[in-house]
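seq as requested:
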Amino acid sequence: MSTDAHDRVELTAVLWAAPEGGFSALNPETGTTSEGETQAEALRNLAEATALYLEEFPLSLGERPIITTFHIADVA
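struct tokens:
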């Protein structure tokens, strides 16, 4: 089955280096997570996990999440 560009949904991915090696990835719109040895693999795995999630739990598309940073006091 071919997917046209207009049939695709653009979602957000947050990636970070995993302490044990490789990368972890999160999709904040659905809460799905995945991992991979490289950033590209983590993103591919996240896309697959999110697609499977959306088959069961369709996403009502609204506003996109706001991704930002914040500061906290040093914790030891």
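DSSP finds one helix and three strands in the chain.
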